[in-house]
Design a protein that fits this description.
A hairpin with a 5-residue loop joins strand 13 and strand 14. It is built from ten helices and 14 strands. By secondary structure, the chain is an alpha+beta fold. The longest helix has 35 residues. The strands form four sheets. A five-stranded antiparallel beta sheet has the order 2-6-7-1-5. The protein has a five-stranded mixed beta sheet with strand order 10-9-8-11-12. A two-stranded antiparallel sheet has the order 3-4.
């Protein structure tokens, strides 16, 4: 049994949208005020703040006249906000993430998480706390069970989504005898050890002219005006279209690799350092190699496949996959080369074959 999130789009009524927007505002306030209190307490008393102390402070805020409006929204998302902040600090001290930041009304993601006591699930309909009518959800696929957690969000393009966390069984795939090495790139998104190359769709480049036009239109609008807000939404819709198409493509590619192969070998690339190259940063971000790796990781875990990660310093490009000879230099402009042993190699396919061999050797 695994916990799996199913995401759907929904269309709230005017009252539901108002209630959710009010909830988002209260969540942002509680996060910022709690973070400010944590910093003040540490600066003055040199003491950290626990979840229990933060929860007690929230109760006191609700009793005050100034913050009494916090009682108007469901208490569940507010408590979950405190838990999320506690988890954010735990991740920071474990050096898994950076220091938690204050939430901005315009830049931060608008979302609210409801646990089992904060919603009602009945006859396939979802009703959130403080609401009388169920959400108008577009059920694009069947939900395999009853949700344990519900997360409602609104993206920058004004679209509403609900994510339902369900515990469900996932059958492992039948073992197969084939393995594949994967070398990521820019001209070809991935080159496989089988010799196949998957063309990079370059989603951002395809919509770059449309995005630039929307951004120029936004720059001409007066700050704070309604027209600027409309122009901002147009820019956000272009970005959302790019993101959705990229995510869909990567899901299909990663699922195919998982289904067709028992073991998938990849390089342990540090994308964060690679995007420091300003000449390639835009193309690397558009390729989204990190997202592809994340998909391969959890899908391999789900379906009983092996993901083999090869050290980033392994010279996969400069090693002949036929005789194993290591060449000193191989500039980026050389896409095909011939080894003294007589083998002619495509640069990327040769790297994929070496990655597979190295991954299987360390298995």
């Amino acid at each position: 049994m695994v916990k799996r999130a199913y995401k759907y789009r929904f269309y709230p009524s005017a009252d539901q949208a108002a209630e959710l927007n009010r909830t988002f505002g209260c969540i942002r306030l509680v996060w910022n005020k709690t973070l400010d209190e944590r910093q003040r307490r540490y600066a003055v008393e040199a003491r950290s703040t626990t979840y229990v102390q933060a929860s007690a402070a929230l109760t006191e805020w609700k009793r005050s006249d100034e913050l009494a409006f916090l009682n108007e929204v469901s208490s569940v998302p507010l408590q979950q906000t405190l838990r999320h902040q506690q988890g954010a600090f735990a991740a920071f001290f474990a050096k898994r993430s950076r220091y938690p930041r204050f939430k901005s009304r315009k830049k931060s993601r608008a979302s609210a998480e409801y646990t089992r006591s904060g919603f009602r699930w009945r006859d396939g309909q979802l009703t959130l706390a403080k609401m009388t009518e169920p959400l108008n959800i577009r059920w694009s696929r069947e939900l395999p069970g009853e949700p344990s957690t519900v997360t409602v969000s609104r993206d920058s393009a004004g679209r509403w989504f609900v994510s339902l966390l369900v515990e469900c069984p996932i059958d492992t795939l039948t073992p197969v005898g084939s393995n594949v090495g994967v070398d990521v790139g820019l001209t070809s998104l991935v080159a496989l050890s089988t010799g196949e190359k998957v063309t990079n769709p370059r989603h951002e480049r395809r919509d770059r002219a449309k995005l630039a036009k929307a951004q120029r239109n936004l720059a001409r609008k007066t700050t704070g005006s309604n027209n600027r807000d409309k122009a901002r939404r147009k820019v956000a819709r272009v970005h959302a279209r790019i993101t959705d198409r990229r995510t869909d493509f990567l899901h299909k590619l990663s699922t195919r690799l998982i289904r067709e192969n028992q073991a998938i070998a990849i390089e342990d690339l540090t994308v964060r350092n690679m995007v420091a190259n300003h000449a390639l940063a835009r193309s690397i971000s558009d390729a989204s190699w990190r997202q592809l790796r994340t998909m391969l990781e959890y899908k391999a875990d789900w379906y009983g496949r092996d993901l083999l990660v090869v050290d980033r310093w392994y010279p996969s490009t400069r090693v002949c996959s036929n005789c194993g000879a290591l060449h000193d230099k191989l500039p980026l402009n050389i896409r095909e080369w011939t080894c003294p042993c007589g083998s002619t190699h495509d640069r990327d396919v040769n790297a994929a074959r070496n990655i597979l061999a190295a991954g299987l050797a360390e298995r």
